[in-house]
Design a protein that fits this description.
The protein has 830 residues and is α/β, with parallel strands linked by helices. Helices cover 39% and strands 17% of the residues. Strand 28, helix 27 (787-799) and strand 29 form a beta-alpha-beta unit.
Length: 830
């Protein structure tokens, strides 16, 4: 069973329960052997904010050293997004394994007239995977209500109800009290329920749950007296972050606490979500036995990125994506929007047909223009009906279009640089709009029938499509992901042009479809001409393909002056450490390090990378102060040399000190895990190297599951690059490093090296760090001392598109780079 078949099976399950309750999920889990029983669970229920809160809890517990699962809904592009472990989506192989095991049972129950729903099956999928992954704790976002929700099959160690508003009244009840009561059924057996509910909702929660921990903003008129946690919103500090304060003073919540933290989310309501998250995380930390100090809490909250919740994608004009989908959420959205200065407001609006569109529109400031749209979903409201709502509300300029992408383009065409474009109404709209910034077109090297079949199989094509297309793929090959209606249009256009378009076997509109396109450059050129002006967002797809295939004749030359812009550069490694794996201790003395740097420059190094902490497997961490003492004197001494200097660090404090001492580049082996690093790079306008790593230092023996190591790494790096861009770093100043040796097996490292050209999909310079690594043990070379293999790796990396190679032995690798460059353009060396 391939992924498309497995996902199709789940998407085809019914959406509404025949019999409300948890019995069906409980029986399925029993059939699977109750794989979840040893896992600690946290449930987060509520009308609004439960997803953000769940993400904050997960991030904080990960920061404390726990292995954490996270279950949320809905997803943006892939069903696998709903189930994550330590931030990574569950692999396709795991989803296929679950369906293969569960399908016979699910078919039997449906035949007996007791079918499980999609949500029930996917909830069981999450619990099954968390048990299989042996996580320390899993955080579950409750779907709807609480008492009868599928997630309530677990016995939680901690739970929360964020807040309560009138919602889903046909199912949950007609009053606030009824809805609060059903949500409060998530209360754990032996711990108080955490809640930020107020007024009659809080009374109902208390009546059902018994003991509660209250979270309140003292400025709220209906805040309870003497809350256990007090929160306050200090306002936004930039276009993506705000500051919140959380304090605990009540004896009922153990130790006192006072923490002030930045959040990568905006809005006063996020202060309450943060307070609920902190209360939950403290309860879980006590259960698991981990320390949760204020620094850990602050860093965990600041790393709790949650896409699509007042997400500022660009600033000129300001483009905001927000998944608000009910009147209460729209009131909050309007409050956050009021914190920004802009000229005109251009609204893009799409919503489900069962929402109160008039109240949602009334909650916003009157826009200068509105473009209504319909996400590719059967429950979406007709955009003409939505347009009439805004016309009746007095908006003079109102358009309606079918697709979200076209609506967003329409608003962007209207907007000036000082305007605001706000897209909202549904997370489904946000998901489609966000692809403008996240879509990848991955170039593929296909030189044989076997490679063609592998490419199609990895894209989830049906066996028939693999057989039909395997012989015909040739010339230029690109893999991308599009919506179902976009895939249909690409198939028609490529067939008309005698090219190839093979689409994954997914039948559902529930997620993006993998598409493999193949043809001559001339065929691609005609395809892109045909897509220009095409509806359903295909113009944007065409623009992305044009860039990946380098068919845009109007490209802007890179005039930054960095050495890697003209040809591949050698970065010489200068470890000022006693314990690095290859040269530990050799250059620990500052004078020796300076002499080494001069020698590397004389041998042809164009960048010197100074590091003061080893990331070898099992290396001991170094304090910030010690790391600064190691690197700063060396950087100051070599800053007079005619060479770019990078600092190899995972800490923004060290990066700032290094830049002050004369460094030019930040090299972050954790991929911007320190949330301040991206803002530092933006502030100083310096390049930043973003490496893909699971753990740094490397954790010996830890195995990581990949479906396709190259595409998985590209996808995960893409989200880190987007974080950098939102912080204000232009993509051309982001350098990507696939992270050879960091969380990959030896064969996977060679796969990354072999398919390095696919990283061109990211549109960034590429760095490869392979020097003397244990990956060469695969071919019989000794780890830590394999100069010959390193030189061969350098030549292969440059041939496959590396812009920078990071090595210990500069003279030999400079020669390898020049040989590889000469095979591409011998005239450069005449």
């Amino acid at each position: 069973m391939n992924y498309s078949e497995a996902a199709n099976f789940l998407f085809d399950l019914r959406r509404f329960q025949v019999k409300p309750g948890t019995e069906s999920v409980r029986a399925l889990l029993a059939h699977l052997g109750d794989p979840h029983e040893h896992v600690r669970f946290v449930q987060v229920a509520g009308s609004n904010g439960k997803g953000s809160t769940a993400r904050m809890v997960e991030s904080t517990l990960r920061e404390a050293g726990c292995n954490v699962g996270l279950y949320t809904s809905p997803h943006f592009d892939s069903l696998r997004e709903r189930v994550r472990v330590d931030g990574r989506k569950m692999p396709e192989s795991a989803l296929c394994a679950f369906v293969e095991e569960a399908k016979p049972y699910l078919v039997d129950r449906a035949a007996a007239g007791e079918p499980l729903t999609f949500f029930e099956a996917v909830t069981a999928l999450g619990l099954w995977y968390f048990g299989r992954s042996d996580v320390d704790v899993a955080v579950l976002e409750v779907g709807m209500g609480g008492e009868l929700d599928a997630t309530s099959v677990v016995d939680p160690v901690a739970s929360a109800v964020t807040n309560v508003t009138l919602e889903h009244t046909a199912v949950l009840g007609d009053t606030i009290e009824e809805i609060a009561t059903t949500k409060a059924h998530v209360a754990p057996a032996d711990r108080p329920l955490v809640t930020a509910a107020t007024g009659e909702a809080l009374d109902a929660v208390r009546a059902q749950a018994g003991e509660v921990v209250t979270v309140a903003d003292a400025n709220d008129a209906d805040a309870p007296e003497n809350p256990d946690f007090r929160v306050s919103y200090k306002g936004r500090v930039n276009h993506t972050e705000s500051v919140v304060a959380v304090s605990a003073e009540s004896e009922s919540v153990s130790d006192a606490l006072a923490v002030e933290a930045r959040l990568p989310m905006l809005g006063a309501y996020q202060a309450k979500n943060a307070g609920v998250a902190v209360a939950l995380a403290r309860q879980v930390a006590d259960e698991v036995g981990v320390e949760l100090d204020t620094d850990t809490i602050a860093r965990g909250l600041r790393n709790a990125h949650w896409p699509g919740r007042f997400e500022v994608m660009q600033r000129e004009p300001m483009v905001v994506l927000d998944g608000a989908h009910n009147p209460g959420a729209f009131e909050v959205l309007a409050a956050v929007l009021s914190e920004f200065d802009y000229d005109d407001l251009h609204l893009v609006f799409g919503a489900m047909h069962d929402k109160d569109h008039r109240e949602m529109a009334a909650a916003l400031p009157t826009p200068d223009s509105v473009t209504t749209c319909r996400p590719n979903l059967s429950r979406a409201e007709d955009p003409e009906i939505l347009a009439r709502v805004f016309e009746r509300a007095g908006v003079e300029t109102v358009d309606s279009v079918d697709s979200v992408s076209d609506a967003l383009s329409n608003a962007l065409d209207r907007a000036g640089s000082d305007d605001c474009v706000l897209l909202t109404g549904s997370l489904f709209c946000v998901a489609e709009a966000r692809r403008r910034w996240t879509r990848l077109g991955i170039p593929k090297e296909v030189t044989s029938r076997a490679e063609a079949r592998t490419t199609l199989e990895r894209a989830g094509a049906t066996p028939e499509a693999v057989d039909a297309g395997g012989d015909d793929i040739a010339h230029r090959v690109v893999k991308t992901q599009v919506e179902s209606r976009q895939a249909q249009a690409l198939e028609i256009e490529m067939a008309r042009l005698d090219g190839q378009c093979v689409v994954a076997g997914l039948d559902s509109d529930g997620e993006l479809h993998d598409v493999v396109l193949s043809g001559t450059l001339a065929q691609f050129g005609r395809l892109l001409d045909a897509l220009d002006g095409h509806p359903y967002g295909l113009s944007e797809v065409g623009a992305d393909l044009r860039e990946r295939l380098e068919l845009d004749e109007g490209g802007v030359a890179d005039e930054s002056g960095y050495p890697w812009t003209d040809s591949a550069s050698v970065m010489g490694i200068l470890n000022v450490t006693p314990d690095s794996f290859h040269d530990g201790g050799e250059f620990f003395d500052a004078d020796d390090a300076i002499d080494r740097a001069r020698a590397m420059v004389d041998a042809g190094a164009e960048i010197i990378d100074v590091g003061g902490e080893s990331t070898r497997p099992g290396a001991d961490p170094v304090s910030v102060e010690d790391e600064i003492r190691r690197v700063v004197p060396v950087i100051e001494a070599i800053s007079e040399l005619d060479v770019a200097i990078s600092v190899d660090t995972r800490r923004a404090e060290v990066g700032r000190a290094a830049l002050d001492a004369g460094a030019d580049v930040l090299n972050d082996v954790t991929g911007l895990e320190d949330p301040e690093m991206r803002f530092l790079a933006a502030e100083r306008e310096v390049p930043v190297i973003v490496m893909h790593s699971i753990d740094a230092p490397v954790v010996p023996g830890k195995e990581i599951d990949y479906d396709d190591v190259v595409e998985d790494v590209i996808e995960e790096l893409n989200e880190r690059i987007l974080l950098a861009e939102k912080a204000g770093i232009p993509r051309e100043r982001v350098i990507v490093d696939p992270g050879l040796g960091f969380g990959k097996s030896k064969p996977e490292n060679f796969e990354l090296l072999s398919r390095l050209s696919e990283f061109e999909a990211l549109g960034c310079p590429i760095l490869v760090g392979h020097s003397h690594k244990s990956m060469f043990e695969l071919v019989g070379q000794k780890a830590g001392n394999n100069l010959e293999a390193t030189i061969a790796g350098t030549a292969l990396a440059v041939d496959r598109g590396a812009d920078i190679v990071r090595v210990h032995d500069v003279p030999e690798n400079v020669a390898a780079v020049r040989v590889a460059e000469a095979t591409k353009d011998p005239s450069r060396f005449e």
